[in-house]
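Notes from hallway chat w/ T.B., transcribed later so I don't forget. T.B. wanted the structure written out for a chain they're using in a teaching module, and asked if we could keep both sequence and structure tokens in one place. Agreed to drop them here.
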Amino acid sequence: MATNLQAYEDYLVKEKNYSPLTVRAYLDDINSFQEYLKEQSINLEEVVYPNVRNWIVILVEQNLSTTSVNRKISALKSYYKFLLKVKQISVNPLLKHKSLKTAKKVQIPFSEKELQDVFLINDYSNDFEGIRNRLVIELFYTTGIRRAELINLKLNSVNEIQKTIRVIGKRNKERIIPMLDCTLNLLKCYKEQRNHLEVIKDKEMLILSKTGNKVSESFVYRLINDYFSTVSKKEKKSPHVLRHSFATHLLNNGADLNSVKELLGHASLSSTQIYTHSSLAELKKVYQQAHPRSKK
């Protein structure tokens, strides 16, 4: 079975172009299911749907969220599709499985005031770390890129003449995003400080730690959480909330939904439309304040 897992990992990386984080999560979920099968003395190739359903019941009883359970089953479905493709099995036991229903959560973006405050209230030093930290926030908010996309930016990703940044998104899809002058100016200051680092180990990468290494996902998450904790009482303060704020503020200020879709790198409009919920809330607020009938 280890051979199958290695072949499956290669398939996810080389054919599906999944990110290392997604691949690791899929493999962890499959290993978790295999542990369950081992306890039940069931072979992976002999699994029938009732075995999967029993596992789902166990996961729910362990108080796993519906989203987490669905993610695990999604990984399992993908693996069985692979086994079917390589003729390791003849029937996919999850063929007719339907995901558990989840309550849709409306993401709450940072307000425009909170974004103004995060730059005004916080004390950014003029050294490498201070300028880099400000740049990270600027890049998230002015380009809407994902955390993994920011981490993997390279020095040659930025075209200062055309004022654009080249981003490699999910499944290695490339998109070009315009850059604001304020972000470009900050980027130039950062690059000057970057050149003065004593050691640069990851020479191609744009965003570095003070030791010259490519920054980690946990580092970037902590950076955003720490800075926004000074200006916001929202429960979630993450790079994704900044991406959500980017989209919401564009829509609130009249941007076309298709344009925002392209900037975010979404494959379909349905993915982008989740950001319209917050815009609708803003629209309702303006409507209530402005419509003559609201005062009667």
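Follow-up for T.B.: The chain has two domains: 2-85, 112-288. Might be a good example for the class.
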